[in-house]
Amino acid sequence: MMHRHVPFLKNVFFYSITAYGGPQAHIAMMMKMFVQKTPYVTKEELLEYNAFCNLLPGASSTQTVTLIGYKRGGVPLAVVTLLVWIAPACILMGAFSFLLHYIDQGSLHTNIFKFIPSLAVGFLVYASVMAFGISIRNTITWVIMLVGIAATYFLFNSPWVFPLLIVLGGVATNLSHKRIPQVERKPSKIKWWNIWLFAIIFLIAGTTSELARKNEWPHRKPINLFENTYRMGSLVFGGGHVLMPMMYEQYSVRPKIIYETRPNAKGNIIDIDKDDMTTGMGIVRAIPGPVFSIASFTGGMALKDEGKHMQVLGCLIGTIAIFLPSALLVLFFFPIWNNLKKYAVVYRSLEGINAAVVGIMIASTLYIMKDISLVGTNSNSLINIGVIITTFCLLQYTRIAAPLIVVACVILGYFF
Question: 3-class DSSP state for residue 118?
Fold first, then answer.
């Protein structure tokens, strides 16, 4: 049965090795790859999936890709889609945990990626234009979009801003009950196994990790690593730029505080050097795919002193623990979301939710642009402007595949 989905999975793979710029830019690439190039979903469905995933904790772009697979082939294809999407980034970041100490960190050059932020802006402009045309149709959606732009731009680093804007957008379009009538949909049966599995893993991991800590179990690092990473994947809102400071505090700051009161704890606590952690946080932004793949790096670094086999195990633990809760949550709550859409109050909310998403995308474009050199007579400023305009035009007016545009941008960075 999977044979007929091979073309789709190939597209997911090409998307995974060219998806730069974080979750906001990822939705723009999805628009090109899965809507325009090959219509696996409609623009409206993709915006709805993205908005829904922003209401949940975890990796939103990963959850959105998983839902596209779920729509096409149910849970089996959703799982395979998830694995294809995360594999390249997680393998690269896991490998980097082995290579880090063989490389002079001061000589790490990422100049070939210097025009990637401009590329991400071009993709975001394209996605914003596409989404604007189908989501902004009346006064209330204009107001929601403008509020979303202002709030997202000034509060971009606040983890609660995205879900809050989406909820408020849905509430705002329910102030009028006349524009969108009741739409009846036959409710489907809810499968409870995955939310029970999510909760059981959460409780067992937490209990076991606490017992291991209190009783000072030998070789308890893998247990603590799984619990810490699974907890972060279950609770973090706001994407990778929120996850990475949490990991930095957990693995690089907290151990030093513990050592002050318990010097004998050294050797049995996960402790990642601050310089190593910040290097990993920098390199994950220079590779394509989900930013949550930083967990593959931290997992490897957490167990590097236990031997190569344990370091590989650490990479696997980090990868599984960070993405498993995202998958279980989205596959449980999405059928509930579809059931709720039979009620007019939820159906009307979609209008405001989509308007809020457009505001978030436009603000993300502006937020990234503020760190790009665009004003000036130097060559980099002119090239940045050219990359933004060219990327948008190629996406909007040609059928050139998105991966080719990314490759061209990397080559441009190499020569300039």
Answer: helix
DSSP annotation of 335: H
- Per residue in 304-340, pLDDT (tens digit) is 988 899 999 999 999 999 999 999 989 888 888 877 7
Structure tokens at 343: 């009620």
Instruction: Name the DSSP class of 302.
Output: H
The pLDDT of residue 185 is: 54
Is residue 233 a part of any domain in this protein? yes
**Domain-embedded: residue 111:** no
For residue 133, give every residue at least 6 positions away whose Cβ sits within 8 Å of its Cβ, in sequence order, or none.
none
Assign 69 a pLDDT band (cuts: 50, 70, 90).
Answer: very high
State the DSSP string of 199-220: HHHHHHHHHHHHHHHHTT-TT-
Q: What are the pLDDT digits (tens) for 207-231?
A: 998 898 888 787 888 999 999 999 9
Q: What is the DSSP string of 295-349?
A: HHHHHHHHTGGG-HHHHHHHHHHHHHHHHHHHHHHHHHHHHHHHHHTTSHHHHHH
* DSSP-H helix ranges across 100-192: 116-135, 139-154, 161-172
The SS3 assignment for 36 reads helix
Residue 388 to residue 408: CA distance in whole angstroms: 13
Query: What is the Cβ-side half-sphere exposure of residue 299, based on CA atoms within 13 angstroms?
Result: 32
pTM summary value: 0.79
Best CA proximity match to 219, nearest among 269, 150, 174, 271: 269
Distances (CA, A) of 39 to 8, 44, 45, 176, 314: 10, 12, 11, 33, 38
Predicted confidence at residue 67, as pLDDT, reads: 94
The residue type found at 407 is: V
Distance separating alpha carbons of residues 313 and 301, to the nearest angstrom: 11
Residue span of the structural domain in which 313 resides = 193-328
Who has greater pLDDT, 66 or 353?
66
Total domains present in the chain: 1
Is-contact 335 243, C-beta < 8 A? no
